[in-house]
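agent: user wants the full assembly modeled, not chains individually. Plan: 1) parse entity lines 2) check alphabet per entity 3) run joint structure prediction 4) return tokens. Steps 1-2 passed, two entities, 430 residues total. Proceeding.
--- entities ---
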Amino acid sequence: MSKSAFISMAVIRRLPRYYRYIHRLWLDGVTRISSRELADRMELTASQVRQDFNCFGEFGQQGCGYDVALLNTEIAKILGLNEGYRVIMMGAGRLGSSIIENFNFESRGFHLAAVFDSDPNKIGTEIDGLKINDPADLEGLCGGRECPEIGVLCVPREVARECALALKKAGVKAIWNFTSENLYDLGLVVENVHISDSILTLGYRLNELERELYG
Amino acid sequence: MSKSAFISMAVIRRLPRYYRYIHRLWLDGVTRISSRELADRMELTASQVRQDFNCFGEFGQQGCGYDVALLNTEIAKILGLNEGYRVIMMGAGRLGSSIIENFNFESRGFHLAAVFDSDPNKIGTEIDGLKINDPADLEGLCGGRECPEIGVLCVPREVARECALALKKAGVKAIWNFTSENLYDLGLVVENVHISDSILTLGYRLNELERELYG
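--- prediction returned ---
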């Protein structure tokens, strides 16, 4: 599919957003969309959209717009949504539980395979049909060739590094990091969740609005 | 400060990321950084960085790099971090509590002013030193001229719209939306948090890595 071996991270980071919009259009029964319309909805420029899609191949014919169903399938493929990656959740505290209960891993092509928490009151109990395990049993339960590919870190920052290292030792390849610990040096694929970015954008937009209204 | 009245949302959405990197450099005592170095750290191109900063004014001299302390102050100003916006939290369930306890509003220039939850077992109790109030008292407690500017929605999707409308009625101008409800039609500034975007990026990068390793 991909035309070039190197695609910049900036483009890759826009793909999930594209997927959200395209998937929604597809669910709504829209069959074609122009780069202009898509750009307007996503607050991008039409030439940006065309450039981005060009990195991955041909999704449309000039003047006819893009085929929404094709875009939907192809972006899902590029994102690896059909890989069925398995996920280990580390930490079933407030944040971890809230993700387990509210985030639909399956609908995004992921499978939540196991949950670990060091709280003795939680070990052995269930959350959303999954048993909460003792982190001491991580390697025994998940280690080796069959180890899930992704670990989700919802632990306190102080134990994040130790926890990531234990995941790596068990065979995990990638970390979805909800802590503020910097884990780039561990030789794992790491994605940090920075929810603060969106409240800063909100603050900016509110500030702009007030300047417009009150000068 | 801003050179042009219109700055695209794509640039604005990059600002919090710039701020995170620049603020970190500033804390680390770095005094100057080139667009190239900054671009490398942020997985952007140097010309993108120069273009983005150009939208807001002059932060550096050609060939000398950017003044980190100046960038830090100016981006904070552009983002409105000194506005001291006040925040109402709607929902003190797992997600809401986890945000109240883990997200440092103050360090980002925001002030958490009040918390509401409809659970009778929670009303009247405290979280992080703040009393949890009955949503029926929203307008009485927060309404009018002194209404906080921002409402955070950590409620079930089914009540998100009703809750956003109550916030609007009380005088809230902006919504930080953790639900999957689409609230763009309410005439409020709305920022959605899409944590799924980052696990999709993670899936993509993992997929790429495996293709490199195993062909």
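agent: reporting back. Chain B touches chain A through 57 residues (CB under 8 Å). Chain B has two domains: 9-78, 86-192.
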